[in-house]
Design a protein that fits this description.
Belongs to the multicopper oxidase family. One of its GO terms (molecular function) is oxidoreductase activity. InterPro entries: Cu-oxidase-like_N (IPR011707), Cu-oxidase_2nd (IPR001117), Cu-oxidase_C (IPR011706), Cu-oxidase_fam (IPR045087), Cu_oxidase_CS (IPR033138), Cu_oxidase_Cu_BS (IPR002355), Cupredoxin (IPR008972). Keywords: Copper, Glycoprotein, Metal-binding, Oxidoreductase, Signal. The chain is mainly β. It folds into four domains: about 140 residues, Cupredoxins -  blue copper proteins (Immunoglobulin-like, Sandwich), CATH 2.60.40; about 90 residues, no CATH class; about 130 residues, Immunoglobulin-like; about 170 residues, Cupredoxins -  blue copper proteins (Immunoglobulin-like, Sandwich), CATH 2.60.40. About 10% of the residues lie in helices and about 30% in strands. The chain contains nine helices and 30 strands. The strands form six sheets. A six-stranded mixed sheet has the order 10-9-12-17-14-15. It has a six-stranded mixed sheet with strand order 21-20-23-28-25-26, with no helix packed on it. Strand 18 and strand 19 form a beta hairpin. The radius of gyration is 23 Å and the shape is globular. The two termini are about 20 Å apart. It binds 2-acetamido-2-deoxy-beta-D-glucopyranose (10 copies) and copper (II) ion (CU). One 2-acetamido-2-deoxy-beta-D-glucopyranose binds next to loops.
């Protein structure tokens, strides 16, 4: 009996792991910004422990669910080549991990770079369930470092080997399920108003003065506020009344909102992350990762340009910038040259959302002659490149521009010149301001509990999800065209599981064509099929003044049931997700014993 149990365990594909991690999830009191609430810890830590792998390793990640609710863990950006059952999406690749259950994820770290793992059940990212994944590149792989500093290539490689994650997030004093319940009760997307921003799990509630709130109020929202005779709230938020006018909904009931959600700001002491920069290393590498629930950030380090050398875990021709825009789920790997006076410099993070003025500062601390890292103080004495609203303070501040990013090496990878199949999505709110849809139909969370999960079903027979599933054939090229159909939508950071895709075009106005080929024939200036950005997140342009669109092309190479969704947690929870059944003609057979 024991013998057969042991041998059947070993029949599971790739039972031999190169790297094994156990992640125990618990629900306990924590106060990352100085305010105590219930939250998720991983092995007692927040954020969770670093998972460090070598390119080519088989990883084994054992998740022990000590939470009082179901969960799953998704490795964001990991391809899951030939392991679609380890993708961590409830109802698609597995059944939820129930309280006191364990689930083991085994996957190959087939490409180097910066990734992260996070809960993929409802809004649990907003409860703190995430941690970084670092995959060290194989020896001998081509790197673009000579374009940064030819004389320092060895130092840059050494800095890359020591890379430090900088996980940036937003944080609320309500749990994700309380936030959802409030949205339902108020008929309003109250998740837009957060309490603090965190860097590596540290921050504080920092209430701005009325003068600052007035000074930094975005000119785009000023007229709306003026018309309502209102101003940004003490928390820096657009008042709920104004949001309710911008996103009218039959079920709006603002009396259901406690004043702490939009209005009252109560400062906390909190704490500040200090990144120690030893001058003697000459260069430092940071993996900047957004695990945000809602906000898009501007990120900058005072007086230090950032050399962006990889985006979403993929090398690019390095770009030297002063600041970058960081959307939910994105990763930027940057080098910082340690060539300035030893003292504390500010790492400035500001939300770019129109719905809230909020920022935070972490410390980039040089050692001094006595190796005492900024002399033990966290006082910052440096000149910012961006202000509290995330705008450049002078005209010469350079922001990372995705349109300029080119893969390295440049000849690889390349999109096919034409697609075999085109899907057109019409992104809208559906019925209420907190309900969203990828294409008219909001995601049905009953799918989370589908038994068996989609991957275990005949893909041709999956009908339960109605308008929410798409099918593709293996080894074909697919165009995804996202049409932001209504005015006033924020950028949507769309994430495709398993694949990276090429962002081949974008524009303003309605997408009135049937295919990219037609559109590109008429508007070649809106497309780049030669050296397009290659990413696993695709941010649609905001539709501030009218409709916009974004076109993405990807190759189906890994059959399985994968999610396509907005990475804003309240949009995903509100239904902005669909399922792509990739490669239905080569549907995989799941190793025996994998299903939970
Ligand atoms: C999980 O196990 C612990 C310890 O055995 C027990 O106290 C708790 O009730 C269990 N929780 C659930 C949801 O079964
Ligand atoms: C606008 O609001 C202020 C302060 O709340 C109030 O004093 C003023 O009367 C209001 N003006 C109008 C036109 O309602
Ligand atoms: C609005 O919310 C309040 C507070 O929760 C509740 O008492 C009231 O019944 C709600 N009104 C409607 C119309 O649902
Ligand atoms: C470092 O701190 C010590 C004690 O607080 C102080 O005497 C000294 O002047 C500081 N050095 C620098 C370089 O600021
Ligand atoms: C910020 O940059 C833009 C574009 O370069 C420029 O037009 C603007 O004047 C800059 N803002 C400030 C305050 O210098
Ligand atoms: C989106 O909805 C429209 C209208 O129902 C439909 O024609 C189209 O095929 C849908 N697109 C996708 C990708 O499902
Ligand atoms: C938790 O997962 C189990 C197993 O899939 C499912 O039966 C149950 O309904 C789930 N609970 C919730 C609240 O979704
Ligand atoms: C699919 O969308 C169409 C058009 O919006 C709608 O009539 C139909 O009810 C939807 N089907 C499902 C299963 O949601
Ligand atoms: C986009 O299409 C909608 C619906 O067909 C139409 O009402 C709107 O005027 C169009 N907008 C533009 C900018 O063409
Ligand atoms: C799917 O297509 C890719 C790309 O051609 C190929 O590498 C892979 O082996 C195929 N998968 C299956 C299961 O046939
Ligand atoms: Cu969205």
């Amino acid at each position: 009996m024991l013998l057969s149990l042991v041998s059947s365990l070993f029949l599971v594909a790739h039972a031999v792991a190169d790297s094994r991690y156990t992640l125990e999830l618990t629900w306990a009191k924590g106060s990352p910004d100085g305010f105590e609430r219930d939250m998720i810890f991983i092995n007692g830590q927040f954020p969770g422990p670093h998972i460090e792998l070598e390119e080519g390793d088989w990883a084994e990640i054992i998740v022990v669910n000590k939470l009082p609710f179901n969960t799953t863990i998704h490795a964001h950006g990991i391809h899951q080549t030939n392991t679609p059952w380890a993708d961590g999406v409830p109802g698609l690749s597995q059944r939820p991990i129930q309280p006191n259950d364990t689930f083991t994820y085994r996957w190959n770290a087939d490409t180097y770079g910066s990734y992260f793992y996070h809960a993929h059940t409802r809004g649990q990212i907003d409860d703190g369930c995430y941690g970084p994944i670092i995959i060290k590149p194989k020896a001998g792989i081509a790197k673009p470092f000579d374009k940064i500093a030819p004389e320092d290539v060895k130092l840059l490689e050494a800095a890359e080997a020591r890379v430090t994650p900088l996980i940036i997030s937003d944080w609320r004093h309500k749990t994700s399920s309380e936030t959802w319940d409030l949205e339902v009760a108020a008929g309003l997307e109250s998740a837009v108003c957060v309490d603090s921003l965190l860097v590596n799990g540290k921050g504080a509630v920092d209430c701005w003065s009325r003068e600052e709130l007035t000074k930094y109020t975005n000119p785009a929202v000023a007229p709306v506020l003026q018309q309502a005779n209102l101003s940004m709230t003490d928390k820096g938020c657009l008042p709920a009344e104004v949001l309710a006018t911008l996103f009218p909904s039959p079920d709006t009931n603002l009396t259901a909102l406690p004043s702490s959600v939009f209005d009252v700001c109560t400062p906390t002491q909190g704490s500040r992350e200090v990144i120690k920069a030893p001058c003697s290393d000459k260069w430092m590498a940071l993996d900047i990762i957004s695990s945000a629930g809602i906000a898009t950030f501007a990120v900058s380090i005072d007086e230090h340009p950032l050399w962006v050398y990889a985006v979403d875990g993929h090398y690019i021709e390095p770009l030297k910038v002063d600041a970058l825009t960081l959307a939910n789920g994105e990763r930027y790997s940057v080098f910082v040259q340690l060539d300035k006076t030893a003292k504390n410099y500010g790492i400035r993070i500001a939300s770019l959302a129109l719905a809230q003025l909020i920022d935070t500062t972490a410390v980039f601390s040089y050692d001094d002659a006595e190796q005492s890292y900024g002399n033990g103080s966290t006082t910052i004495e440096s000149e910012p490149s961006i202000n509290r609203a995330g705008d450049n303070v002078t005209a010469d501040v350079i922001f990372f521009d995705q349109a300029e990013m080119v893969s390295f090496p440049p000849q690889f990878p390349q999109p096919a010149p034409a697609a075999d199949q085109t899907f057109l999505f019409s992104l809208v709110t559906a019925g209420s301001s907190y309900r969203w849809a990828m294409n008219g139909t909001t995601y049905d969370h009953a799918i989370d509990n589908s038994n068996p999960p989609f991957l275990y079903q005949d893909p041709h027979a999956i009908t339960t999800a109605g308008n929410l599933t798409l099918t593709t054939k293996n080894n074909t090229w697919v165009d995804l065209v996202f049409h932001v159909a209504t005015t006033g939508q924020p950028p949507h950071p769309i994430h495709k599981h398993s694949n990276k895709g090429f962002i081949i075009g974008q524009g303003e106005g309605n997408f009135t064509w049937n295919s990219v080929a037609q559109a590109a024939a008429e508007k070649p200036e809106n497309f780049n099929l030669v050296s397009p950005p290659f990413r696993d997140g695709f941010v649609t342009p905001a539709s501030a003044t009218g409709p916009t669109w974004l076109a993405v092309r990807y190759q189906v190479v890994n059959p399985g049931a994968f999610m396509l969704h907005c990475h804003i947690q309240s949009h995903m929870d509100g239904g902005m997700s669909m399922v792509i059944l990739d490669g239905v003609d080569e549907w995989p057979e799941v190793p025996k014993g994998y299903m939970n």
